[in-house]
């Protein structure tokens, strides 16, 4: 068996990139080889959508951070195998070609951070928002505005996946019920001033086709001072016993239980609508209403319009219809699918370039899919290395020297540990003791990371 000696760059430090690095390090170690992996991230902190895409009131999901931490924190006798290099954007601070010159292989793991398009008239009206932008705001992403307009009383959320439910739950939930979470202070202040009383969630398909999970659904019923409202007509012909799997069966039982409960007179209401396909957003100078076509099951498993249309008066619309891949400058990109063209992780026509995660397969699947996805990509990379298909780096020396020459304020793993400690200290000193309070501004994150000490 060939003993490998590799230098590999991974672009993106979310779960996809970290899993790929961990699997690659293990595969090379199993072969008695040695490897150095540099994990480049455009943000100052690691973890990607786990830090900036999971609602702050989901501590169970954020527990994934613990395992990701272990993967990046592990040392071998020669030092850390996977080196985190944050606040560095490939295509801005360093070119993809410059990575190819310095590494045997480059793995793209940039994920999908933008909203997928919703092609209906009026979608560009003020008051129409992408769910990804709202999620980035309430998760304290450094590159979005610090404030969010929450003047609307009646709000629509289009989509029937976990992101749609996250957005609806955050909009409907009272600000004081976020005080124990890691929500940034500016977000807490924004939610506290919210005028929202009614949140309507619209799905194009029926109750048996919902894409969220039982946990996400159950959390809706646990919201304080929020009534969940359903409509009997949406459940005509829906039989939990005929559900395609146990997960859907459980959720249908939950929905039917809620239908049987009388409204509790809460100050806020969360309405779940099914069989609604968006047709048009209307308004003079901002969103004032949203029109839908009622749908029904088609003969081939699709949905078809019934000919009936309904209009709802809303002052804001959140589009949660999916994500769109994050392009890397210098790499081919399929604009239709929002992915890097690839064959099982090998980027088409690019020796030594690979992809994993959502940028490889599109924004579908959960964390478990990300692991299996990385396993496939790493298997091909290792096979290419063993066959001699990877070129030797033409430029030697540490890439950090190049970044320092360019005065790039990169962050490191030790810097992240300093920022992490700072955020935890802010939580302990808060009026309501919290696990952490996120630092939002990029410059403050970088300062805390690069100083290695707490900043005032």
Helical fraction equals 25-40%
Which sequence of strands runs across the widest sheet?
A: 8-16-9-10-12-11
| CATH architectural category of the largest domain | 3-Layer(bba) Sandwich
How much strand?
15-25%
Walk me through this protein's architecture.
This protein has 456 residues and is α/β, with parallel strands linked by helices. The chain folds into two domains: 5-113 and 324-410, Rossmann fold (3-Layer(aba) Sandwich); 117-321, FAD/NAD(P)-binding domain. It contains 15 helices and 20 strands. A six-stranded parallel beta sheet has the order 8-16-9-10-12-11. Strand 14 (289-297) and strand 15 form a beta hairpin. Helix 1 packs across helix 12. The radius of gyration is 24 Å and the shape is globular. The N and C termini lie far apart (54 Å). The mean pLDDT is 91.
